[in-house]
Amino acid sequence: MSHFPPEYLASNSSQKPNYARVFLTFARNSLVRDMTFRSNFIIETITSLSWMFMNLGFYLLIFSYTDVIGVATGWTQYEFFVFFATVAIVNSLVQTFFMPNAQEFSELIRTGNLDFALLKPIDTQFLISLQKVNWSGLGNTGFAILLLLFSLWHLSRHEADFVLHPLQILLYPLYVFCGIIILYSLMIALSATSVWLGRNQSLYNFWFYITNFSRYPMEIYSGPVGDPRRWIGESLRTFFSYVIPVLLAVNVPARILAKPMAPDNLSLALYAVIGTILSFILSRMIFYRALRGYRSASS
Amino acid sequence: METIRIEGLRKTYKIYQKQEGLRASFRGLFRRRYRVVEAVRGIDLSVDQGEFVAFLGPNGAGKTTTLKLLSGVISPSSGSARVLGHVPWRRENAYRRRFALVMGQKNQLWWDLPAQESFRLHQQIYRIEPAAFVARRDELVDLLEVGKLLGQPVRELSLGERMKMELIAALLHSPEVLFLDEPTIGLDVVAQHNIQNFLSYYQKLKKITILLTSHYMKDVIALCKRVVIVTDGVIVHDGSLKEIIDRFSTHKVITLQFADHGLPHDINRFGEVIEEQAPRLKIRVAKQTVTDSLAAILQLHPVEDVSVEDPPLEQVIAEIFTSVKQESDSTGKRAISKI
């Protein structure tokens, strides 16, 4: 093909962007920006870490009253700390990679600056969802991983029947990833609604209310057998497991480490994969439908 | 070769009409009143490769909407458009690699970072070969003389400097079609002039197709041979700058400098006096009577110097805008005329 002038080849190359490298550039640019505003970065890291410590103190306090959450659920203190560490890992990663972007998305729609994102020869959802990285969120991730390791060490030392199988260690990050995707899909779909709702109103804040349910072991929704209020918990559990699967985001990876032998784990684990894929596909459909309704603010 | 083809392009918006006052706002919760705004009302246009076309029109005429439609940012209500063979609002990557949009009122560079970091990001997104990237960036930076500013956060740049950076970012991937929406808005005369020079040079060098909207007639005179005038969402004129003057200006401006220091009093019978600064006088004379009036004045008064000019383009364009508006207001229809 040497008869083509080089200029022709350069301007018409249909090469796709290398998404990994684009993401690295986003991450790098965000880091440069975060380091420019140094004190802001430090304050954000400290405030989110203190949120972790306060929660940890709160749960320690609860376990000073009881040894286990619920009768025969198996959630004693260190198993619960595995769960809590997983909550923190999943949430801090969502906060680091997706939250600033989902927040900005409705702002982009309102100001009309979404225009530029639509011009770029790259997947628009990728561009919108990942262009900023909030590096200060990783402080929590680091602390949560330490807490996880400590709790696992404690369990293996003090509980005779606690053994970690390599498969569990392999599956854990996979399901953490699934959890992140589930929470992200819900988040981006909710913030996309501002295309229809107009101005800076969106259902984005609803994400925080819904995901609150994902922060506790699903056993607490079951309630004691025979209690007339049991249906409330059961309907919450079913709804947030199968319709909006936020309950699976933390419960599945945490159970894989802390309660691998529980009988319903296999079906939950299977459904978590399906739920992740379905959530992501649905979020893409909502996202692209929203883009079609975009009107672009006049300049 | 035809680069842009637009046929019967329309875009209407439904806008919620908010009534004044709290009580009306409550009523608005249940029963909403909408107004349909027709931003673009049937535009036909064909632009060849290498043309530099200006879109002129008052605010709200539909210029920006047309550029947004052609960039695929929004979809039309009806009609069709093809740019480089692509339907813009399908947002195909093959199309998006080949054009760029620059808006004077919006910025796409990372606000807190130096422009060079945004350029690198563009390199990754458009996947520009490193050697080509460096060559193009350096060429553009040289032409716009912003080499020293590359490392400065964008928020610390002046408006003119920022606009230059926006242009570089938009041109790094060598677009074949460039849409410019008021690129010189708010700039001082020097910065405007720099950007005009750059655009003119770059367009001739690369033979790219450019559509420009601007309110500065100087931009248009410096850059574009072809002018499309849009008012109320329709094209009212499509032709050269010279045609506008010939066709729409009914008057010429005669400047007279008298030999004695007083000004004659009977001069207003030849035309409307528009400026009086003894011993100079400017009058507006109907085109067909220019020669007769001039001969008569020269015979009657001692004139030292004389010049006959077309009225300033701004004025002609303003007259077109108002006359079209009046026409459409009185008949309820749109006046469309084409040369």
Your description of this structure?
The complex is a heterodimer of chains A (about 300) and B (about 350). Chain A has helices at about 5-10, 20-35, 40-60, 75-95, 100-110, 115-120, 125-130, 140-160, 165-190, 195, 205-210, 230-245, 245-260, 265-290. With about 300 residues, chain A is mainly alpha-helical. Chain A has one domain (about 15-290). Chain A is globular and about 60 Å long. The model of chain A is unreliable at about 1-15 (pLDDT under 50). A 6-stranded mixed beta sheet of chain B has the order 5-6-7-3-8-9, sandwiched between helices. In chain B, strands 11-12-10-13 form a 4-stranded antiparallel beta sheet, covered by helices on one side. Chain B has 2 domains: about 1-245, P-loop containing nucleotide triphosphate hydrolases (Rossmann fold); about 250-310, 2-Layer Sandwich (Alpha-Beta Plaits). In chain B, α5 (about 130-145) runs antiparallel to α6 (about 160-170). In chain B, β8 (about 225-230) and β9 (about 235-240) form a beta hairpin.
